[in-house]
Protein: Cyclophilin type peptidyl-prolyl cis-trans isomerase/CLD
Organism: Tsuneonella dongtanensis
Amino acid sequence: MTAKLLLAAALLAAPALAQEAEKPAAPSPNEIVAAAPASEWVAIAPDDLLVMDLAPDRDGKARRVVIQFMPPPFSHPWVANIRTLAKAHWWDGLAIGRAQDNYVVQWGDPDAEDAAKAKTLPKGLQVTSENRYVAKIEEDVLRYSKFRDSYAQFSIMRDGWPVAVEWPSSHSMAYDAWPVHCYGSVGVGRNMPPDAGTGAELYTVIGHAPRHLDRNIAVVGRVIEGIEHLSTLPRGTGPLGFYETPEERVPIAAIRLGSEVADLPAFQYLSTDGEAFARYADARANRRDPFFIVPAGGADVCNIPVPVRRAPIE
Amino acid sequence: MTAKLLLAAALLAAPALAQEAEKPAAPSPNEIVAAAPASEWVAIAPDDLLVMDLAPDRDGKARRVVIQFMPPPFSHPWVANIRTLAKAHWWDGLAIGRAQDNYVVQWGDPDAEDAAKAKTLPKGLQVTSENRYVAKIEEDVLRYSKFRDSYAQFSIMRDGWPVAVEWPSSHSMAYDAWPVHCYGSVGVGRNMPPDAGTGAELYTVIGHAPRHLDRNIAVVGRVIEGIEHLSTLPRGTGPLGFYETPEERVPIAAIRLGSEVADLPAFQYLSTDGEAFARYADARANRRDPFFIVPAGGADVCNIPVPVRRAPIE
């Protein structure tokens, strides 16, 4: 039995579809996104981007990773600290020190634990506290797209971001809400509680969403382009995937705010309040496009990645 | 502010713990697994393993991936077909043709779609049908560890495997049950329905669990060792992450059943019916070890990977 061209298979399937000639094939989630009107895409300000340029790979190719910051009310003052560090060019010359399969890639100052060698942090870093991992929101969360969740009462898509929600008590007028760790989320490394990290040590998720980290670590953003430069890195052989030798670490050439990067493309995300996103999320949860047989009837919020794209050239 | 050695931070935390001198620090999930008694580890028969040796990497290092087969009643006759293909050494000289970030790495015959070049399949392959994606099980599923799930009524750990469950109707005496796609799951590539694939084209998950594929594709096993050889592969630049040139494909030297591999280590999985697994799963869902502040109160089944290890040398 030889496998057929995907196109040929689609044509072979066509006679069955012809019987329902009135009903076109259901669009895939990506097709819905591709057809979304321009008005439903939201511009991301360059100042809300963090751009990491790694040393070129062993074939000399450039490696740029672009990160979008989490907006208020979440994860401040860590985002503020990261802006301070980026403006100070603090990460230049530091490195990626850890790559753990199905977990995280982490970067910062590999000598942070050595008082003699640790790189001096810039002035002006704000104090952080674990009390800030969870925010209070008072709006009617039920107006947002809502998803069944194994880790919270439910999760929502709020202003372009996956957020978990809990109604803390019958007397409270506000929801507890916190950012969700998904593939590509960027979080703040820290030591044991009550240390909450400054933002100098960062990581991104390269495996199944580690939701047990929610409410235990600050999520400050997500990778929107170039995550493959991190997810394909050789895994560290030390404990927790740390590289055992300095030679294995991946040098960071520079980390800058997007507003300080010449010729940075413009990026947009698909508004999670719009009609196209609602149809996209429904299609992610209920795949009716021709490849599928059984729509799941639901999805976890991390299986509905918020579409982000380079803004089309006008 | 310099970051402290993790050990030093743990010592700094010790004074707080000393106030509760009667209560030792809660163990981490990995600590629970490491302390599990030998009797709770189940031997995996070599005949239930599929061993894939890729061409050495560009530094000449060997790359072996070990896969454990899904047991009955799931995913037969695909597992039977894979045994037939492995015994025929059919994959030798074929290749990995696709690596899509946050999704899958896929391998098989890159020329499968070209009738002139496609490699002849061995005789004896069983007919497959999409009706077999879901099995019926009649035992009392409520005796298994049970997990809240965004894609099914609930999921369970059954005989060492994550399985989603639905009670089909009030008249039925059996549950619908199907294997769950998690990171490292191995599934069977196919064309458009009703094609269900033979098992000649396989993939493994290298990102967030694509649960929308459940009940739509046969899950035949999981990678138990060596997944980093797949998850670190350069991503394909063609549609769906297919490599655009033959030179990018990763050659497969050989795929064999474990029973045909000389000097293969013995492997074991932690019984999901035992006390250690129950404590491990509880710890995964409720992190109380010192790094954590807020136990989640739940977990999705893919965030509780079944521990698998090389059998200790007696």
Remarks:
- Chain A has one domain: 46-271.
- Helices of chain A lie at 6-19, 29-34, 78-87, 228-231, 275-285.
- The first helix of chain A runs from residue 6 to 19.
- The domain at 46-271 of chain A is CATH 2.40.100.10 (Cyclophilin).
